[in-house]
Amino acid sequence: MPNPIAATFRPYWQYRDLVRNLVIKDLKVRYQGAVLGFFWSLGNPLALILLYDFVFTHVFRSDLPNYILYLVVGVLHYNLFSQAVSQSCESLTSASGLIQKIYFPRILVPTSSLLFTLVLWVVAILILVVLYPFLGGIYHWGLLLYPLILGLYVAFIWGIALAFSVLQVEFRDLKHLVDIALMFGFWSAPIVYDINVLKPPFLEIISMNPLTQFMDLFHALLYAGTLPALNHVLIASAWTLGAVSVGMVLFRRKARHLVEDL
Amino acid sequence: MPPAIIVEHVSKEFILRHNRAMGLKTRFLSVFHKNKREKREHFLALDDVSFTLEKGEALGLLGHNGSGKSTLLQIIAGILQPSKGRVITNGRVAPLIQLGVGFNPELTGYENIFLNASLYGFLNKEIKRRVKSIIEFSELEHFIDAPLKNYSSGMQMRLGFSVAVNLQPDILLADEILAVGDQAFQDKCLNKIAEMRRNGMSLILVSHSQEQVNMFCDAFLLLDHGQVVHRTK
Ligand SMILES: Nc1ncnc2c1ncn2[C@@H]1O[C@H](COP(=O)(O)OP(=O)(O)O)[C@@H](O)[C@H]1O
Ligand SMILES: [Mg+2]
C-alpha cells in the first residue's frame, strides 16, 4: 500500500454502491405509489414559504427587511438538522436484520440514512433557488462558498448522527427525548428572531449554540449577501471537528459489539 | 498455498442481560425494585474452538440446537468478534446465514438482486455482469420486475440463493440453508454447490443432516455446548 490514507478508505470505497443502493431503496419505498413522487418534497417548503409570506406581511410585521427570506433560510437549514438527527436515532436499530446477517462497515448505515435525508432536502431547497430573487435574495460571488459551508454543516450533522445512532441501541428512549429537544432547538438559534435583539444573558447563551454559528453563516451568504465573518467560520469548523471526532470515537467503540445488543 | 480459514482457540462469551432496561421507565423502576434490576449472566457459547480449512476443502458442522454452530459462522464472517482467539481468512467470504439479506418487499426482484449483492461488497457494475445468470438460475424470469411482496417465500429464497452462488465466493459459509424451494430446485442447488466445490471453493456447511454432510464434506466437526467433541479427518 503506497498511501496509508488510501488504504484506510479502501474498505469503505469498496462499498460505495451499497450506500447508493440503500439510499435509492429508501427513496423508492418512500415514494412508491405516489404518482407525483418526488414533487411532494417540493410541496412542503413551497407551502411553508407561502404561509410565512401571508402571515408576516398581513398579520405580523417584522423590523427585519426581507424577513421571509431570513426566516426561510433559517427554517430550511434547521429542518435538515432536525430531520437528519431524528432519523439517525433509528438508523442502526431498524437495520438490525442486515447487521446480524452479514458483515459490512457499520458506519455506512447512519451515513446512508443521512444521505437519504440530504437528497430529499436538496430537492426541497430547489424551491428556494427558484424563489430566491423574489424574496429579496442577492446574487453575489460569495454564493460560490455555499457548497463548502453546507459541507461543513453536513459533516457536523454526520458526527452527531453517528453518536446518536449507537446511543439509541443502548437507550431506546433516546429518539423521544431527541424529538422533544429538537423542538426547543428551533428556538435556541436565531431562525425566527435576529440575534442582535437579544439582551445580555440570552445573547451569550444563544451564542454558545453551534447551530447559531451555522445560522450566521447561512444568513450572511443567503440573506445579507455578504461573506461570513472569518471567526464564525472558524468557530463552526471547530464545532464540526468536535462533533465528528466524538461521533467517530463513540461509533468505533460501540460498533464492535453492536450486533450483540441489537 | 495459505489455508482458506484458520480458527485459533476461539471462544465467545455472551452476556445475557435478563430484565434488560431498554427504556427510561424500566431504568427508573429498577432503582426501587430489586427484582426489576438487570441481571447479567455470562454464557460461553464457544469454548476454545480450533481448526484449519485448506483451500478447496469442505467442512461440515454438526451439533444440537444451541451448540454454537451459527455463532462460529458469524465469527468467521466477521459479524461477531471473538472474546478470545482469532480467525484468519484468505479470499472472499460469502456468509449465507440467511438467504436474501436486505431484501425489501416493496422493491422488484431485479432491484433486490442489486441491494443484496452490494451487501457482499460488490459494485453495481460487477453485479450487472452477473445479473443475467442470477435470474436464469433462479428461474424467475417472469416475476423479476414484480415487487418481492408478490413472491412466495420459496421464490424469495430461490432468488437469494441464486445471488449468493453467482457471486463466486472463495469461501461459502452455509447455515442450514440448503432446503430451498421444491425438490427440483433443491437438487439444482446441491449440484451447483458441488460444481463450485470442483472449481476450488472452500465450504463450511452447517446442517442437521449427516447424509448431506457426508455427501459434501471432507471432514466434520461435532459441537456440543460450544466445545468440539468429535472431529474426523
Ligand atoms: N446475541 C446473542 N446474545 C446472547 N446469546 C446468544 C446470542 N447469540 C447466540 N446466543 C446463544 O449462544 C448459543 C449458541 O447459539 P447458536 O450459535 O445460534 O446455536 P446453533 O446455531 O448451533 O443452534 C445459544 O444458547 C444462544 O442462545
Ligand atoms: Mg443456528
Automatic annotation (TrEMBL), chain A:
Q: Which species is this record about?
A: Acidithiobacillus marinus
Where located? Cell inner membrane
A GO molecular function assigned to this protein is: ABC-type transporter activity
Q: Which PANTHER family match?
A: INNER MEMBRANE TRANSPORT PERMEASE (PTHR30413), TRANSPORT PERMEASE PROTEIN (PTHR30413:SF8)
Name the membrane topology term: Multi-pass membrane protein
Outline the extent of the ABC transmembrane type-2 domain. 36-254
- Predominant localisation class: membrane
This one is known as Transport permease protein
Q: Which Pfam families match?
A: ABC2_membrane
Matches recorded under InterPro entries = ABC2_TM (IPR013525), ABC2_TM_bact-type (IPR047817)
Q: Which UniProt keywords apply?
A: Cell inner membrane, Cell membrane, Membrane, Transmembrane, Transmembrane helix, Transport
UniProtKB/TrEMBL annotation, chain B:
InterPro entries to which the protein is assigned, alphabetical:
AAA+_ATPase, ABC_transporter-like_ATP-bd, ABC_transporter-like_CS, ABC_transpr_TagH-like, Bact_Polysacc_Export_ATP-bd, P-loop_NTPase
> Which residue numbers delimit the ABC transporter domain?
26-233
- What PROSITE patterns has UniProt attached to this entry? ABC_TRANSPORTER_1, ABC_TRANSPORTER_2
A single GO cellular-component term on record: membrane
Instruction: Write out the entry's keywords from A to Z.
Output: ATP-binding, Nucleotide-binding, Transport
- Which SMART domains has this protein been placed in? AAA (SM00382)
Write out the GO MF terms: ABC-type transporter activity; ATP binding; ATP hydrolysis activity
The organism's superkingdom is given as Bacteria
Q: Does the keyword Transport apply?
A: yes
Q: Which family does it belong to?
A: Belongs to the ABC transporter superfamily.
Name recorded for this polypeptide: ABC transporter ATP-binding protein
* Organism this protein belongs to: Acidithiobacillus marinus
